[in-house]
Amino acid sequence: MKLRLVSLVLLLALTVAPVFGQGCAMCYTGAAAAGQKSQIALNRAVLVLLVPAVTMLVGFVGIAFAYRREREGDGQS
Fold first, then answer.
1. Model-level pTM greater than 0.70?
2. ∠13-46-53 over CA atoms, to 5°?
3. What is the tens place of the pLDDT at every residue in 1-51?
4. Which of 23, 34, 55, 57 is deepest in the core (most CB within 10 A)?
5. Are residues 50 and 74 in the same domain?
6. Do 39 and 31 form a contact (C-beta atoms < 8 A)?
7. Number of domains in the chain
8. pLDDT value at position 70?
């Protein structure tokens, strides 16, 4: 069962990899062809989109640590 799962994941990863490479090249070419103001705006947009993702990640990790600490405290009483 594990071998089938690993094989499926590997197959999917190999078939999807070229798509990621193409998108990256297209984005790079488009950004490089843009003017200076457009490049600055694109950099700012990436940072703005990064803030919610990082905030959610930090929140989930904080909740996980709080839950773990709570569970460890219950076992020692």
1. no
2. 65
3. 788 888 988 887 777 766 666 667 777 788 888 899 998 998 899 899 999
4. 34
5. yes
6. yes
7. 2
8. 86
For the stretch 6-9, contacts whose Cβ atoms lie closer than 8 Å and that sit 24 or more positions apart, written own/partner, are none
CA dist 32 → 3, 8, 18 (Å): 43, 37, 21
51 and 69 inside one domain: yes
Displacement of CA 14 from its chain's centroid (Å): 19
**Burial, 42: exposed, middle or buried (Cβ in 10 Å; 0-12, 13-18, 19+)?**
middle
Q: Is the pLDDT of residue 77 over 60?
A: no
User: Looking at the structure, do residues 29 and 41 belong to the same domain, yes or no?
Assistant: no
**Residues 28, 44 within the same domain:** no
Question: Over the Cα atoms of the chain, what is R_g?
Answer: 21
Are 47 and 66 within one domain? yes
**What local confidence, expressed as pLDDT, does residue 49 receive?**
92
Which residue type occupies 13?
Answer: A
